[in-house]
Amino acid sequence: MSAPADAGMVEADFAVLREDYSRYLLSDGTTLRVKIVVRKLFKTPATSPQGYPLNVGVDSINVVAAQVPDRLRRRPSADTIDTSRDVGTEMKFELMGEQRDQEYLTADGLRVLMKPVLTKVFKYDKYNGYGEPIYNVVVQAITNMEKVSSS
């Protein structure tokens, strides 16, 4: 999502403090590693009485990598996946370990925390170039902000 120019938002420079994967175990034995990578942050110069920007915009991408057991590998599919046509099987999953926040620090001392939450996983009867089943995942981003003390 990019911030519209007329919304009074300005781009904020930031440093990456942490971008670690959350891991999920699928019912077929595959492990999914999921994280959010922030590319741009936008915020309003105006702040609330507590000192937080009135609005924040985040341009991010979801990064998902699968570790697939050998028993699930097949020959790569000749045709490409089309999620508007191909029917996937919904997979059950569970979080392995703890949910990992992605953490960013703006130049003016605002810590932005992004938590990826996996909500749906679909497995298709097609295989990528590695011979792994193709999964389509839905990831929600939970965003929080904290002011960093200047002391």
Please describe what this structure looks like:
This protein is mainly beta and 151 residues long. The protein has strands spanning 10-12, 14-18, 22-26, 31-43, 56-67, 89-90, 93-96, 102-106, 110-127, 133-147. The protein has one domain. The model has no long low-confidence stretch (mean pLDDT 92).
Query: What characterizes the major β-sheet?
Result: 5 strands, antiparallel
Number of β-strand runs: 10
The unreliable regions are: none
Rg from C-alpha positions? 19 Å
Q: For the residues shown, what is the average pLDDT?
A: 92
Helical residues, percent: under 10%
Q: Tell me the number of structural domains.
A: 1
Helix vs. strand class = mainly beta
Ends distance: 34 Å
Shape: elongated
The share of residues in extended strands comes to over 45%
> Total number of helical segments?
0
Instruction: List the secondary-structure elements in sequence, H or E.
Output: EEEEEEEEEE
